[in-house]
Amino acid sequence: MKARIPNAGNSGNMMKQIQKMQEEMARVQAECEAAEYTAGAGGGAVEVTVNGKHEVVKIDMKPEIVDPEDIEMLQDLLIASINEAMRKADEASEREMGKITGGLNLPGMPGGLF
After folding, report:
1. How far apart are alpha carbons 87 and 92 in whole angstroms?
2. Is 0.90 topped by the overall pTM?
């Protein structure tokens, strides 16, 4: 008498679903890395744009914000803008991956994926 493995017929289907999910995750990851996220500080005096790979791709500053007597304020505005843009990039990546995984708690995700 042969031993039967429960749901053995479903393992091929499950592997296809996993492969499809992996492909979809790779596609979304590439889209998130290419996307740009902008954040500003100082009422729009400074705006920073980053991509999904956490690379700063653009900094816009209003000329009046550049005060040689107050470099610290400019530095603070840049830091605040960069951190907020990075936060936006992270949130977008996590949200998009969550759509694919359906809230599954997979090892290495999110945070470690990007």
Report:
1. 9
2. no
